[in-house]
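Record type: ASSEMBLY
Status: queued
Input:
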Amino acid sequence: MNIWLAMILGGLITFGMRFSFIYLFGRFEIPETMRRALHYVPPAVLSAIIFPELLIRSGSLDLSFDNTRLLAGIVAIAVAWFTKNTLLTILAGMVALLLLQIYK
Amino acid sequence: MSQNRASFWAGVRAELPLLIGGFPFGMIYGALALNAGLSIVAAQLMSSIIFAGSAQFVAAQLVHEAAPVFVIVLTIAVVNLRHMLYSASLAPFLKELPLRWKVLLSYLLTDEAYAPTIIRYEAEGATPSGHFFLLGAGLALWFDWQVSTALGIFLGAAIPDSWSLDFALPLTFIAMVVPVLKNRPLVMSALSAGLVALLAYDLPFKLGLILAALTGITVGTILEGRKSPKGAL
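Status: finished
Output:
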């Protein structure tokens, strides 16, 4: 049930933001600082998810070579950097993780 | 009337390349949402209730981590903040429309519908049938997203656990974030957010995520403000 509440509230907020200025046209302007800050939302939020996913294993920091997700993640970061291709990045990371799990 | 129809189909056509790009993305979302613990119905309906790709990925991840409702909602809000920018940017072109049109077009206002629409408006200005272009682009993407989600759910259910499909979620985020790290403020924004996320990992209610995101946004914004006008990085 909590999932539904989160989805409905999340949906309402998303709609509200899309509707905001279309509805309020002429009455408000987006301040310049906020316009600039919006630029940093994707790297900040996504990195805040990526780092723990790669570096925290069973509740604590794991920087060792046994951390297969960290190694596979580094492979994916390299592929993303050089190819800028979403599907290739996901594929490379998944294959790297599978191989590391098999050969470890 | 035929003017409206022409404008509608022009919107659909302009959306086509984006549909091709969006389709595998929707499939990955469908497969991952199921894997993250959402029911089939919830995974599918999220694609029409929220209808925003990256927010849906993040929400699925947070459901997987059993984050509380307010953290999920707050994170969706932060991830979708950019839509206010799109809203502000299209508002002058839509100001004459009746409320029901404004509501419908706002619901359909995704990254992928905004991009071709604003390009069209900037080239041609506001025309009496201009909003049909956005309607065409928006609806085309909507159907693309629903169908690809359904297909992803269908295929995702057939993938065994030993494939570690859940890892595709952070990988998707890596694929989204790495290519946008084009200058120092962006890199520092990502690194500071990641570091705070690690340090604050044990905070209750997954609040570390919110704290980390706000840190990254602040760091990026401040560094950009300090950048010399000559743009040296």
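Annotation: Residues 47 and 101 of chain A are 24 Å apart (CA to CA).
Annotation: Chain A has two domains: 1-30, 37-103.
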